[in-house]
């Protein structure tokens, strides 16, 4: 199968010599704001997982790989390298999407991130003409997104988000990871498909791109053939500590108290969905079990709306309004500080903490299909710089469904076991993992 891939790649290079030149044209001069940062990262189009990528043979490796991760507020980044010679590639970890995207020189560079230049790498190749990839990825209408792809070569895509977009050409590169077998041992993985971004509505702050860890065939997980991965997001306010993301056999939670809950298959797409859905059955604040309808977090019968996904690339947990209002009312009843009418923090419920110090809050518990995830106050309350003390959750429509964001995931060690379709988790001091 490797020789097949080489032949396809050579054909593509011959057909698309003008595409390489296109990569060197001027970028969007307005692209200065980090419009893609934070919750804007969330896709509007693939939220409900209609992305279908055509079958193709993917690169795989037996090596377990690892990458240091750190909080870049509000996103968590993993550290890997791209190209030959390798260039640092700090990238947002996103369990809610499927593609690896890198800002490519001469475009990009609007931020502080290292900029990768495909023309300086000996292992870059366009990957536009693999017919299965093009049909599956570039031509497919994707969850109702605009049909804005370019037919033929090169294979390009305008990936849209809630508040932004990135335009890229599908290409191939070598990515280099750390290894768990020895700290200095690096593991290069050749022939990984990625999106070479040459235009976007904004940058990624200090990230050079994004790494999708979703279920789709182009995600890092699937391209590596990894059947499991684990991560542990360090405390949200701690920008100095690091943790380790592991893919492959060494991904594990070394804690006998770890709990497990099954992923919920999307009724329509099954495990072909992008997303990792969980079965949230209720929420408690302290000892009080909130009266949330039993079906509040259920996926609709056709799999197109509702549900709750776990998303490392989305910061603030959103709950469908019927659940959110219960949580909100309980928090209002517990906090004695005055609420703020129009909070600046971009959150729905905030209190004025400029005079008094914040209250001591009880734990909140998310009840998953038999197992409990305990969120201490620092994982659901948030003190913004303007002394607004806020519930770090927002509400969403029943159709949009709910998202377990990275603020709520801090200091919990997660294992995504894809063979067994289980999520395991245990509270942890992630700075030690
Ligand atoms: C990005 O690449 C595409 C395809 O090669 C090209 O049509 C487009 O003009 C490029 N955009 C920018 C801003 O360079
Ligand atoms: C991924 O590839 C496999 C086989 O290579 C195929 O059966 C499956 O449908 C693909 N998944 C998606 C989401 O396209
Ligand atoms: C990420 O890689 C860069 C460049 O190799 C290095 O300077 C930085 O310290 C690394 N960060 C972490 C968290 O390992
Ligand atoms: C997308 O565009 C292609 C080429 O113009 C067309 O053949 C196809 O029908 C369109 N698909 C949708 C869903 O509009
Ligand atoms: C990508 O799509 C967005 C939203 O539809 C649009 O505003 C933007 O101009 C498109 N970008 C390119 C390069 O086509
Ligand atoms: C990181 O550590 C430095 C030096 O100890 C400290 O000044 C800084 O406040 C820390 N930053 C964060 C975000 O924790
Ligand atoms: C917070 O309280 C202080 C003191 O009472 C007041 O001056 C300030 O305007 C309040 N801020 C908001 C956003 O309500
Ligand atoms: C969710 O968990 C509840 C309680 O264990 C169970 O009754 C229900 O069937 C589960 N739903 C799904 C979709 O797995
Ligand atoms: C979210 O809650 C606010 C007020 O609590 C309400 O005005 C708004 O309509 C709600 N949004 C959704 C999507 O339910």
UniProtKB/TrEMBL annotation:
**UniProt xrefs under Pfam families:** TAXi_C, TAXi_N
Annotated signal peptide: 1-20
Cellular component annotations (GO), alphabetically ordered? extracellular region
Family the entry assigns: Belongs to the peptidase A1 family.
Species of the source: Digitaria exilis
Q: One of this protein's GO BP terms?
A: proteolysis
Q: What PANTHER family does the annotation carry?
A: OS07G0533800 PROTEIN (PTHR47967:SF45), OS07G0603500 PROTEIN-RELATED (PTHR47967)
What molecular functions are annotated in GO for this chain?
A: aspartic-type endopeptidase activity
Designated name of the protein? Peptidase A1 domain-containing protein
Which InterPro entries did the record assign?
Answer: Pepsin-like_plant (IPR034161), PEPTIDASE_A1 (IPR033121), Peptidase_aspartic_dom_sf (IPR021109), Plant_Aspart_Prot_A1 (IPR051708), TAXi_C (IPR032799), TAXi_N (IPR032861)
Keywords in alphabetical order, please. Answer: Aspartyl protease, Glycoprotein, Hydrolase, Protease, Signal
Tell whether Nucleus is among the UniProt keywords.
no
Domain Peptidase A1 per the UniProt entry, residue ranges: 76-426
SUPFAM superfamilies linked: Acid proteases (SSF50630)
């Amino acid at each position: 199968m490797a020789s097949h891939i080489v032949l396809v790649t050579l054909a593509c290079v011959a057909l698309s010599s003008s595409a390489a030149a296109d990569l060197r044209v001027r970028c969007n001069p307005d692209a200065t704001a980090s419009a893609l940062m934070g919750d804007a990262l969330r896709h509007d189009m693939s939220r409900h997982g209609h992305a279908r990528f055509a079958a193709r043979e993917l690169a795989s490796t037996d090596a377990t790989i690892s990458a240091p991760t750190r909080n870049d507020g509000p996103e968590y980044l993993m550290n890997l390298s791209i190209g030959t010679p390798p260039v640092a590639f700090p990238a947002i970890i996103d369990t809610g999407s499927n593609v690896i995207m890198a800002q490519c020189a001469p475009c990009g560079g609007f931020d502080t991130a290292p900029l990768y230049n495909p023309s300086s790498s000996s292992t870059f190749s366009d990957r536009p003409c693999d017919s299965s990839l093009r049909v599956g990825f570039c031509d497919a209408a994707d969850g109702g997104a605009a049909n804005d792809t370019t037919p033929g070569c090169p294979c390009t895509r305008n990936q849209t988000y809630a508040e932004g977009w990135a335009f890229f050409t599908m290409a191939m590169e070598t990515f280099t990871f750390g290894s768990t077998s020895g700290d200095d041992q690096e593991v290069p993985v050749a022939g990984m498909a990625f999106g070479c971004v040459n235009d976007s509505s904004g940058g990624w702050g200090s990230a050079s791109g994004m790494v999708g860890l979703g279920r789709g065939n182009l995600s890092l997980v699937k391209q590596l053939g990894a059947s499991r991965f684990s991560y542990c997001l360090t405390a949200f306010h701690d920008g100095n500590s690091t943790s380790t993301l592991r893919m492959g056999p060494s991904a594990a939670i070394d804690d006998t108290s770890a709990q497990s809950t099954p992923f919920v298959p999307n009724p329509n797409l099954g495990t072909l969905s992008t997303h990792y859905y969980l079965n949230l059955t209720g929420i408690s604040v302290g000892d009080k079990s909130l009266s949330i309808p039993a079906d509040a977090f259920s996926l609709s019968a056709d799999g197109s709306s509702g549900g709750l996904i776990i998303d490392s690339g989305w910061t603030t947990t959103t709950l469908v309004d019927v659940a959110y209002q219960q949580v909100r009312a309980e928090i209002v009843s517990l906090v004695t500080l005055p609420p703020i009418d129009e909070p600046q923090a971009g959150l729905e419920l905030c209190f004025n903490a400029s005079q008094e110090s914040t209250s001591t809050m009880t734990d909140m518990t998310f009840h998953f299909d038999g197992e409990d995830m305990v969120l201490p106050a620092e994982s659901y309350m948030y003190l913004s710089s303007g002394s607004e003390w806020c519930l770090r959750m927002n509400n969403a429509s029943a159709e949009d469904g709910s998202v377990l964001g990275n603020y709520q995931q801090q200091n919990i060690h997660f294992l995504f076991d894809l063979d067994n379709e289980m999520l395991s988790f245990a509270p942890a001091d992630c700075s030690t993992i």
